[in-house]
Amino acid sequence: MTTQTNGAFDRTPLIAGNWKMNMDHAEGVALVQKLAWTLDDANFDYDRVEVAVFPPSTDLRSVQTLVNGDKLKLEYGAQDLSDQDSGAYTGDISGAFLKKLECTYVLVGHSERRTIHQEDDELCSKKVDAAYRHGLTPILCVGEGLEERKAGNHVGFTLEQLRGSLKGLSASNAKTLVVAYEPVWAIGTGEVAGPEDAQEMSAAIRAELENLYDAETASAIRILYGGSVKAANAAATLAEKDVDGVLVGGASLKAEEFANIARFEKHVVSE
Ligand SMILES: O=C(CO)COP(=O)(O)O
Asked: How is the quaternary structure described (predicted)?
């Protein structure tokens, strides 16, 4: 799906659910089915707001079969890809394989990859490149830790990650890029960056993208916020001008809660 002007939105909102290392393929199929039923029951307009799930790679074939078989309007993607295309890279997953599974998106440089697997900006830039090489849209994750936030250096730190991870990316590819701002201190902690924090960083990221490319490219790129997003706080964050979606962890594992996040325009508050 391409980014476009869409009713009240400058860019089509993207509600993305990162399951992390949760849900085996049988559980994953049940979750996607429940999510689709819940959204269909609510007459959800998939053309207005895009919904995507990011299951573990072992679930992707099952999710593909379900999405195709039931003609679901949900998108899906992988949580990571190799910077290499094929060969002796035990345990790694090629973008070519993800494309064959008809993934639309792939996460790149999630903070858990950056910290647990020591992925640096240079590797992330190669992964962004690999995603485009295989026709996948990367969702590049950036964001500061608590230390940088406390020191007031959160913007500088995050923009440096952005520049390093986009090294060599052409303007024509950048137009379809998605960036996810995920402050590490807000992930899985229940601490949510306020809507104004999300807006401050999203605006800074967009300005930097304009510096790197041009105004047209920068205004086409979707910027998501991630970190303890729930139905109760999604609407306020998504109301911010430069926030074009959310990347949801824990709350994406519950079909109803995630569906309520996707229905943020209804301001549904979860029980
Ligand atoms: O890391 C995240 C999504 O990629 C955020 O996770 P939580 O929503 O569980 O804080």
From this structure: Homodimer.
